[in-house]
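Supplementary Methods, section 5.1.

A reviewer requested that the exact input to the structure prediction be made available. We therefore reproduce it here, unchanged from the version used in the analyses.
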Amino acid sequence: MSKDTRIRNTTDLRSELAILFENVKNGHVKAFDAKEMTNMAGKMIASAKLDLEYACLKRKITGLHNAFLEVK
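The structure derived from this sequence is encoded token-by-token as follows.
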């Protein structure tokens, strides 16, 4: 059975970015590829931020659950 490698929250995202950083330093990942991956990470964070801003505007803070921003 394969390991689940999905990024489920910001803790997972930071871990993946740290691994990516090490792989760039070691020459295992090209800088261009790393740039594209960090661009996607930024879009994931922006999307989660948008969810929170929308909830604030709609006054739905009570009961708000954003699994991506949840820290283990």
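The chain has a mean pLDDT of 85. These observations are discussed further in the main text.
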